[in-house]
Amino acid sequence: MNKIYLDNAATTPLDPLVIDEMVNVLQFNFGNPSSTHSIGQDAKVLLEKVRREIAEYLKVTPAEIVFTSCGTESNNMILKSSVEHLGVERIITSPLEHKCVAESILDLKKRKGIEVVYIRPTKNGDLSLEELEKQLANSEKKTLVSLMHANNEIGNLLDLEKVADLCKKNNALFHSDTVQTIAHYDIDFSKIPLDFASCSAHKFHGPKGVGFAFVRKSSGLKGIITGGPQERSLRAGTENVCGIAGMGKALEISMKNLENFSQKIKETKKYAIQRLKEEIPGVKFNGRSVEDGSLYTVLSVLLPYNNPMIGLQLDMKGIAISQGSACSSGAAKPSMVMMSILNEEEMENNTPLRISFSHFTEKKDIDTLVDALVEIQAIHTKI
Ligand code: PLP
Predict the structure, then answer these.
(1) Residue 347 falls within a domain, yes or no?
(2) CB 126 within 8 A of CB 360
(3) How confident is the model at residue 329, as a pLDDT?
(4) Domain end: 213, 237, 256, which one?
(5) Residues known to be catalytic
(6) Do 35 and 65 belong to one domain?
(7) Which of 29, 186, 305, 339 has its CA 20 to 30 A from that of 322?
(8) Residue 326 pLDDT more than 80?
(9) 180 lines ligand 1 (CB under 6 A)
(10) pLDDT of 332 strictly over 90
């Protein structure tokens, strides 16, 4: 069966050029970047080249890029070190964050007694900046704001510049989980005074097991993985050289083709919205994902009937798609994001489905999905 992949917010397929680059590094550049001999230094040169390219893309300095194993590690490091080393006593966040942020914050609350303040989202998944400003002004405690740039389930985008300005004005640190937006947008951290951000290569056709943290030089953040001087002692451990090379190649391809890729994905998404509206009466969309200004790779659909088996049924028809985010699909409990924006009645009578696109997604894939949904609905409503 020819499978269709519509779960690109969970992970993306590797670009063939990324595979070539990684195989080449595995074969011919195997050195340890900390070794002083020339084989080690070849690996070091490659690491620093990728670091420079990432820094150029974000308009920061190379010293502010710390290679890690994934988005989860980057977020953990930033949150935990902010508390342990920067004296943060209070975190302002929202219930819409990815589990790796949400659970790290709860862990800090439990273990370190950190005060946690949640900004509640509106029905559309928006966060009130007035409420954030009020909360920022509300305490003398050293505060970190942790709010994601784009939500991986409902596609809402946060105005990073406005939030960073509010944080600066109120002397708070600002961390944003930028895992879903790095390499999908032009991002300029020289204009956005945030302190920390995170990235994961497998969200833009790079390999799994590699990412980076952006750590503003002036922040004073320290590492939580100790035991070596790598990454300026911010993250001990021999670097994943071939993964980092793959991430660099994936970023280069994404940035070279940003306009073409994003245009194609936006058109595919528009087509999906139109086909779903035509074929599934009563279909709705969650958050802002249906709107032009949302994360263009994600469309969060609310089907007009309750069918918790939909993901499995689509999988049996050769369509890989998520009912929520990767972490919550397969789980008995609905995702925190859906529980935050849908009421009880909506949760009981509907089924969320997340379509997430890449530039490899074709309109015919959307046709296949819509046909499958119509078929499943016909069977489902007969039962
Ligand atoms: N943050 C967001 C918004 C994500 O979507 C994900 C992955 O699903 C992560 C963090 C975790 O990234 P990683 O899979 O690299 O640990």
Answers:
(1) yes
(2) no
(3) 47
(4) 256
(5) 327
(6) yes
(7) 186
(8) no
(9) yes
(10) no
Residue with token string 């890029």: 65
Q: Do 221 and 76 belong together in one domain? A: yes
Looking at the structure of the chain, the number of domains it has is 2
Residue 340 lies in a domain: yes
Check pocket membership of 377 for ligand 1, CB cut-off 6 A: no
pLDDT for residue 1: 76
144 DSSP β-pair partners: 91, 173
Q: Please enumerate, as own/partner, the contacts of 24-32 that have beta carbons within 8 Å and a separation of 24 or more.
A: 25/241, 25/242, 25/245, 25/246, 26/242, 29/241, 29/242, 29/245, 30/241, 31/241, 32/238
Answer yes or no: is the C-beta of 208 below 6 A from any ligand 1 atom: no
- The answer, yes or no, to whether any atom of ligand 1 lies below 6 A from the CB of 147, is no
Report pLDDT digits (tens) over 278-320: 999 999 999 999 999 999 999 999 999 999 999 999 999 999 9
Pocket-testing residue among 73, 74, 98, ligand 1, by greatest number of atoms within 8 A of Cβ: 98
For 306, the token pair is 């309750």
Whether the CB of 197 sits within 6 Å of ligand 1: no
**Judgement on whether residues 130 and 161 belong to the same structural domain of the protein:** yes
